[in-house]
Write a structure and sequence with these properties.
Shape: globular
Largest sheet: 11 strands, mixed
Number of strands: 18
Low-confidence stretches: 2-31, 34-45
Structural class: mainly beta
GO molecular function: cellulase activity
Radius of gyration: 17 Å
Order of helices and strands: EEEEEEEEEEEEEEEEHEE
Signal peptide: 1-36
Protein name: Glycosyl hydrolase family 12
Keywords: Hydrolase, Signal
Distance between the termini: 26 Å
CATH superfamily: Glycoside hydrolase family 11/12, catalytic domain
InterPro entries: ConA-like_dom_sf, GH11/12, GH12, TAT_signal
């Protein structure tokens, strides 16, 4: 969710907590500052510090991209990208946005295409009616202060191209802190992927469907993203002949955000 001044014009701040990460009109620069990280075994490995609004870096030989993505604010944010895997941590975040509007940022990791910035070997874009199994594992931790969510962001479009405006967004909120909610209104409660979810749906210029877990969790293993996609198709938010263009996982901070951390992330698409 996000008011896309670069894509559709600014949206009203009254759209309570949009549901997504901002996509910019051009591919974000892949830039970073070298730092150092220490693995659990004590081995020092190369790491990167991303502090520019749209800084990003490739990890795991380009299989994933980690992005700072401060699309909704001018306040400082830095993320430290771990030297192994697809891990990252928000080390600086001075956000202070009202909770009845859009968040400040979406620091995240993704597979697929975020405009022209594409990963390698992801199997995306993938046509919806050809999806056999798309799953993801994600492990996180979060602080006891601030206002934020911990959420997947899946994008769909009628075209398989790497550029342009995607027409549908599917968010999966694993947890949130503070009085924030997805765009639109709550339309149902469903049982999917072994958990119960409140379903929200709206259209601030593109289809948005969000699933909010009723029992919060910090981690999922082999989460069945195909099940959520099928439900979105049943509700008319996504077309069967559309394409899944990216699977993103990250945090939307409204206030604060330092201490949000992804320990591990993976996607399997086929």
């Amino acid at each position: 969710m996000f008011p896309r001044t670069t894509r559709r014009g600014a949206l009203s701040a009254g759209l309570a907590a949009f549901a997504c990460a901002a996509l910019v009109a051009t591919a974000p620069a892949v830039t970073a500052t070298a730092t150092a990280a220490v693995t659990e075994s004590g081995t020092q490995v190369a790491a990167e510090l991303l502090c520019g609004k749209y800084d990003s870096t490739r990890v795991q030989q380009g299989r994933y991209i980690v992005q700072n993505n401060v699309w909704g604010a001018d306040t400082a944010q830095c993320i430290d990208v771990g030297g192994t895997g697809a891990s990252f941590a928000v080390t600086t975040a001075r956000h202070d946005k009202p909770t009845n509007g859009a968040p400040a940022a979406y620091p995240s990791v993704y597979a697929g295409c975020h405009y022209q910035n594409c990963t390698t070997g992801s199997g995306l874009p993938l046509r919806v009616d050809a999806m056999r199994s798309v799953s993801s594992s994600w492990s996180t931790s979060s602080p006891d202060q601030g206002v934020y969510n911990v959420a997947y962001d899946l994008w769909f479009d009628p075209q398989a191209g790497e550029t342009g405006q995607n027409e549908a967004e599917l968010m999966i909120w694993l947890k949130h802190r503070g009085s924030v909610q997805p765009v639109g209104s709550r339309v149902d409660t469903v049982r999917l992927a072994g958990a119960t979810w409140d379903v929200w749906q709206g259209n601030p210029g593109w289809n948005v469907i969000s699933f909010v877990r009723t029992t919060p969790t910090d981690a999922v293993a082999n989460l069945d993203l195909t099940a959520f996609t099928r439900h979105a198709v049943e509700r008319g938010a996504v077309g069967r002949d559309w394409y899944l263009t990216s699977v993103q996982a990250g945090f939307e901070p409204w206030q604060g955000g330092a201490g949000l951390r992804t320990h591990a992330f993976s996607v399997s698409a086929g």
